[in-house]
Amino acid sequence: MHHIFPGTASLASSPLFQPIYGASRLAALERSYQRAIAIAKQYRLTMADIHTLSERFWAYHMNPLMTIDIAAYYILAIQYNLVVGTIAPFVDGRPDLEPLMEKLLNLEILADFMLTELDHGLDAKNLETTATRQLDGSFILHTPRPGAAKFMPPTMPIANVPRVGLVMAKLIVDNEDRGIRAFVVPLNDGKTMCRGVTSVLLPPMKGGDALDHALTSFNTVPLPADAMLGSLAKPAQMRQHFLALIHRVGVGAVSASLVLLPSLKLAIYLAGKYSLRRAIGGPKDNRIPIISFRTQQLPILHTLALSAALQPFTTEVISRFCDSANGPSDRQAIAAISKAVFIQHGQKSVASLIERCGAQGLFEHNQLSNLDGHVRALSIMEGDILVLCIRLATELLLGRCSVPPARHSGSLLARHEAGLLAENRDLLPLIPHGHRSKTYNHIMLPRCRPLVEAIGHRMVYDAALDAGVDRDLLSLYEAGVVQLDPSWYVEHGLLSRMEIVSMEAQAADAVLPRLGDFLDRLEPEVYCTAPLISASRWREFLDQLTVYRGESDYRISKL
């Protein structure tokens, strides 16, 4: 879909998007925010794009430009999906919100989605931040104790751009808790924090582009009456009201996963080009390309097959998620399945490609470690993947929800999915005291994620087969998934261990001769800043580094 924004290739080539090695944390953060602002100007997403989940909304998540600076992507994802997406449904009845929305869309004001607290992550519905209504209709926003500080959203002044927070807090009216509401709260003017708002900058996360994550607290901060979104009335169903308020988190579970598609393509390109040019000494001083070794080939070929299979799956996920005929439980299922598949495949693939690039793969300037950090962060952000899988698998086993049926029920991956479902359904009646018991916790919870992943594998295969994905690539994808749970296929007499090995070997042999062509088709070079892919890139990289020389006569003294 990135053809929708053709100008991003020129943006990637602009000076703003070129790497600056050795920059301080603050300088790197400033640059990430400036990049996010530049991307926003290029995309010009509208409120309707974000609110209705238009093709343009989904497309920006899959644009390879996002792989250059993952922090800039996070800034946009928070701004557009979580903040603009949450406020958008309220604008029809609140024309006073329109000027704010215009500034948010253009990133003239930065925004944060402030839900979780230090002591309340997965149980965010139990948050403690309060907004107490005053006699004149205004509110007092307050953090009652250190554990109730908002955890993670970046709130410090930066880039000379004002910042607001969409703060989730308990609405207190006449000493009555009326449930959680969203409040638009000024945080800083781009240079100085607002009165009563404290931001504690957390140390940076390692292994990737990181934001200025913080702990944020509010000390009796006065808010005008129009700071609150929604009604003062107490909801009849507090849980449903809360879930509706944070519905964009569910959208984010899908949309944030999509950036892994261009990330995987970039990772393949980096590792593939490096492996084709890198050589080691052989007999009679002959140089042997490392791509000649099967151990070097397989991670690259498997990830190549994976990216090809995921492309049509992504299209199908978006279509199903946006289908108005599907209810909330259907969309939650699609979100959990797609995220589970992207995370599992992404973690395995990127880690193996880093390893095959040796020491070069560990350096941030070669981009792979940043992608690895993003995959790990993604497993937690917008809904912890393990929790999403436990919830979906439990609902599925209890018969409270369903997943799209297999379109090719005779395939190996469909039979694996059906086998795991039957196995877990047979176990369920044997567990005393139901799905909230200690036994269910011990036996079934660890089985939930593999079950959801198996459903996802089958859906990826179905989508790829129906879309006409290259047969050799699809066979290699299938072989790779079979190797994730080989004992099941052996136990059920479908394949022997040697047949599983042969299945992979035949598929890899078919793809390998076309590796160079497949890499060139990925076309991520303009978005690639890593110096490891060519000798010329490496020389340019060295020219930017600090060099130490001297004329010291230091000697080790003899005792």
Concise synopsis of the structure shown:
The protein is of the alpha+beta class. It has helices spanning 8-12, 25-43, 47-52, 55-61, 70-87, 98-105, 238-245, 247-258, 260-277, 294-322, 328-356, 368-378, 385-397, 412-427, 438-443, 445-467, 471-482, 486-491, 497-511, 515-522, 535-542; strands at residues 110-114, 130-133, 139-142, 150-152, 163-173, 176-188, 197-201, 214-218, 221-223, 228-229, 279-281, 287-289.
Structural class: alpha+beta
What value does the Rg take, in angstroms?
26 Å
Report the span from N to C terminus: 70 Å
Number of domains: 3
CATH homologous superfamily classification of the largest domain: Butyryl-CoA Dehydrogenase, subunit A, domain 3
Task: Write up this protein.
With 559 residues, this protein is an alpha+beta fold. It folds into 3 domains: 108 residues; 122 residues, Butyryl-CoA Dehydrogenase, subunit A, domain 2 (Beta Barrel); 216 residues, Butyryl-CoA Dehydrogenase, subunit A, domain 3, CATH 1.20.140.10. The protein is built from 21 helices and 12 strands. It is globular, with a radius of gyration of 26 Å. The N and C termini lie far apart (70 Å). The mean pLDDT is 93.
